[in-house]
Each structure stands twice: as C-alpha cells, then as structure tokens.
Design goal:
Organism: Klebsiella pneumoniae
Distance between the termini: 106 Å
Number of helices: 9
Radius of gyration: 27 Å
CATH architecture of the largest domain: Alpha-Beta Complex
Protein name: Glycosyltransferase 25 family protein
Shape: elongated
CATH topology of the largest domain: Spore Coat Polysaccharide Biosynthesis Protein SpsA, Chain A
Strand content: 15-25%
Oligomer: single chain
Strand order of the largest sheet: 2-1-3-7-4-8-6-5
GO molecular function: transferase activity
Number of domains: 2
Keywords: Transferase
Length: 273
C-alpha cells in the first residue's frame, strides 16, 4: 500500500477523528502532517516572500491561509524525502472518502508508482468548482492505477483547482522544494508546475470528493474575499490613473492658455509704443 499523508491542523480534532474512523485498520499506512496556520505566521516572514509573483499570475491578492496551506504541503513533501518514500498520497482533512478510495489504496502497488513517477495523479476534489468544466480530459490517454481510471488532462492544467487529494513521487516533491527556494507559488498551481517542468502530465479521476458547501472553509472564503479586494484595488488604481491623466490634461491646457495670454499681452504692449 501507498503511504497516506493527511494535512490537518492540530486543533481540528473532529476532522481527524472522522478520518480515523474511515481509515480504521490502516493505521500503519497513514500519518498526520500538522498543517501551518497562516494567520499565525510572522509578519516579517510574510513580507519576505515574493508573493507578488503569485498575485501577478492569479490577478488577485494572496491571503495568509493560502501561504499556510502551501507551507503545509511543502512539509508533506519534506516527509516524503526524509522517509525515502517512492511516492505518497496526500490528502487534506476535509476530503470525503468512500469505498472506492479504500479499494484504491488496497490495490495500488509499487510498480504502478515506479512506472509513473513523472506524473501527478489527482484523485478528485473538483466538486463545486466552475473551472472544472473546462478541464479537457483525454479518453485515449488514460491509466488504470489501483483499480481506478485516470484521464490525462490536455492543455488545461490551470483549470485543475485544489490540492486536496493527489499522488506525487519523490522526484516531484524534491523539485517543488527546490523551486520554493527561489520562487513563490500556491499549493494548487498545477499549471504553473507544468510550466516549471515539475511533472510530465496530470491524470485525473473522481473517486475522492470535496464539500460543495464552502461556508466552513476559511481558505475558500478568504480566496473569494481576496479576489474582491484585488478587483477593488485594481479599480482604484485605474481610477487614480485616469484622474492623474485628466489633471495632467487640465494642467497642460492651463499652461498653454497662460503662455498664450502672456504672448498676446506682450504683443499689445509693443503696439502701444
């Protein structure tokens, strides 16, 4: 079986207990990775991160909970490296697991992982996301892993959102950690990871779900608020630029009128002599 790394805040006891019940009997195959709480991060550390790189790509503000989420996934990647794992299944603690997931982890073998170490496998979690309808899946390029069918994502990796349930190899984990030393990104920037050549292809299935009701999700609520604030900020900047432009035009007209008036006045004075 594959090792399961569950990213979860220490304080989320209820979520952990729920997963413990589902994974009862598989205790040796999973471990909890204590998540990083974004709002508790040091302000100076946050200021040191090149967050503007993400804001430029995403066209919105980045919130502390997203930074905490990214650091949490990097902790999971470090666990993969430190424990010399071939690959690992990474879950966030709000996923919805069913019988197909149990069948999957029971059926997957090491050969599956060795033969696909350059690929990323998304187990699902696209529920309730508008962009998911723009994910182009190939019905010719597909793989059967652990008794589940994964379809290759074709030139639409940017429409794959969330990092709540996926499998990556130690190669991907190592490359991602190295990339973080010089650049900044969010945990679910699958399109950006493709641009940086961290993997060859993404294959996606749908046997792990994510709650559609996001009212209990601080991350999702924060993302919506960040998008709103970015638009407001952008609108303010555009409005300010337009105001400056109008002011500049008025000043130029004023200067021209003043110079013209002085020229006429000088001419009239000369005529008087």
């Amino acid at each position: 079986m594959i090792k399961i790394l569950i990213i979860s805040l220490k304080k989320d006891i209820e979520r952990r207990e729920k997963l413990l019940q589902i994974l009862k009997g598989y205790e040796q195959y999973y471990v909890f990775i204590d998540a990083v709480l974004g709002k508790e991060l040091d302000y100076q550390y946050l200021q040191s991160l090149p967050i503007h790189q993400v804001e430029k790509r995403k066209k919105r503000l980045v919130i502390p909970s997203e930074i905490g989420c990214t650091l949490s996934h990097l902790k999971a990647f470090k666990y993969i490296i430190d424990n010399k794992l071939e690959a690992a299944c990474i879950l966030e603690d709000d996923v919805i697991l069913g019988p197909r997931f149990i069948q999957f982890i029971e059926s997957i073998n090491t050969e599956d992982l060795k033969n696909n170490r350059n690929d990323v496998f998304i187990l699902g979690g696209q529920d309730g996301i508008d962009k998911s309808k723009y994910i182009a899946k190939s019905f010719w390029f597909k793989k059967n892993i652990g008794g589940q069918t994964f379809y290759r994502v074709m030139k639409s990796e940017r429409n794959v959102i969330r990092a709540c349930s996926y499998i990556v190899s130690s190669d991907f984990a190592e490359k991602t950690i190295q990339l973080f030393e010089s650049k900044y990104f969010l945990a679910d920037e699958w399109g950006y990871f493709k641009d940086e050549q961290l993997y060859s292809a993404i294959y996606i299935s749908n046997f792990v779900n994510h709650p559609i009701d996001l009212s209990n999700s601080n991350l999702e609520a924060g993302r919506l608020d960040a998008s709103k604030r970015y638009i407001e900020k952008k609108s303010f900047v555009v409005s300010l630029k337009n105001t400056v432009k109008r002011s500049s035009v008025i000043m130029n007209v004023y200067r021209f009128s003043k110079d013209y008036f002085l020229t006429i006045l000088t001419f009239l004075k000369r005529l008087s002599f």
